[in-house]
Amino acid sequence: MLPIDHPLAGKEFILIDERAALPFILREQGSGTRKITEDRLKEAGINLSELNVVMELGSTEAVKEAVEAGFGATIISKWAVQKELKLGTLVSVKVKEVSLVRKFSVIYNKNKFQTPVVKEFISFLSSVCSVGFGTPHRN
């Protein structure tokens, strides 16, 4: 993600080298977002020490606000920035050499009663996300 007025904001893709030169804002160590970011960058041959990290923040909201304010760029879930993308305060630019897919799993017992809300939620997840549905755990 980049602020709307950033010089690279008009590009569809940027190269990893361009991303490495940007001031970069990360989630704090220990967060799932940070772990995925580190893993995907490592797969592309980039260590965090090669990035120009200017901030590490403790929440997704804080990261988004720092990027909107022009302090740097970040890698963040598209689901976390839907509002900002619609409002035009942030711009999504893909990094050409990096796959940023994150998989989630939903675990539930198919043999237990499921309310209509639970069924709708599971249906929603399967329609919009790459979610793995495992088999029920048996004791």
Integer-rounded radius of gyration: 18 Å
Alpha plus pi helix count: 5
Secondary-structure arrangement, i.e. CATH architecture of the largest domain: 3-Layer(aba) Sandwich
Oligomer: single chain
What best-fitting shape do the alpha-carbon axes yield? globular
- The total tally of domains equals 2
Query: Which regions have little confidence, pLDDT < 50, spanning 5+ residues?
Result: 131-139
Q: In sequence order, what are the helices and strands, one letter per element?
A: EEHEHEHHEEEHE
Description of the structure:
This protein is α/β, with parallel strands linked by helices and about 140 residues long. It folds into 2 domains: about 90 residues, 3-Layer(aba) Sandwich (D-Maltodextrin-Binding Protein, domain 2), CATH 3.40.190.10; about 30 residues. It contains 5 helices and 8 strands, in the order ββαβαβααβββαβ. The strands form 4 sheets. It has a two-stranded antiparallel ribbon. Strands 2-6 form a two-stranded parallel ribbon. β3, α2 and β4 form a beta-alpha-beta unit. The radius of gyration is 18 Å and the shape is globular.
Concise account of the structure shown:
With 139 residues, the protein is of the alpha/beta class. The chain folds into two domains: 2-95, D-Maltodextrin-Binding Protein, domain 2 (3-Layer(aba) Sandwich); 104-133. The chain has five helices and eight strands, in the order E-E-H-E-H-E-H-H-E-E-E-H-E.
List keywords for this structure.
139 residues; disordered C terminus; two-stranded parallel sheet; globular; two-stranded antiparallel sheet; alpha/beta
